[in-house]
Amino acid sequence: xxxxxxxxxxxxxxxxAPAGCGIGDTAPVPAGSxxxxxxxxxxxxxxxxxxxxxxxxGLERVSRAYRGPDPLGTALRDLAEGPDAAExxxxxxxxxxxxxxxxxxxxxxxxxxxxxxxxxxxRGALRxxxxxxxxxxxxxxxxxxxxxxxxxxxxARGDTVTRTCAP
Length: 167
What we know:
Blueprint: H1 3-16, E1 47-55, E2 58-66, H2 71-81, H3 85-89, E3 101-104, E4 111-116, H4 123-141, E5 149-154, E6 159-163
Parallel strand pairs: 4-5
Antiparallel strand pairs: 1-2, 3-4, 5-6
Helix pairs in contact: 2-4
């Protein structure tokens, strides 16, 4: 194609190219504060409580997600409810009864005191209860699990026992 023929074909393109998209230059325009992410949650970060159930291998620690200010109460309620469907499918079982009530767990002392209604009398149930309470209290105040002392007032038996967790 000769130069003289190409020029008429390219001339419209050369004239329209500087026009761009038709939007003229502008200066920055104030538009408020910069973009931010979603609002912060008020319930605090997701955390885990650990509940102890039995399997063919013995006592096993199971993690459960929770949000809230009461890891001990949450762990005890989860323990009393027993393993969920997925945990049962993995062969986990629980010796459970009505939820025990925390009587005291002074932070930083490595001690927990519980009042347990009927259903927590067997050695297996007591072991589950002690390890679940010790784990929740130890997680809350930084005390290593084997050093947390759990005192359980067993209402059905009319006695009180103090144990540590040895899973």
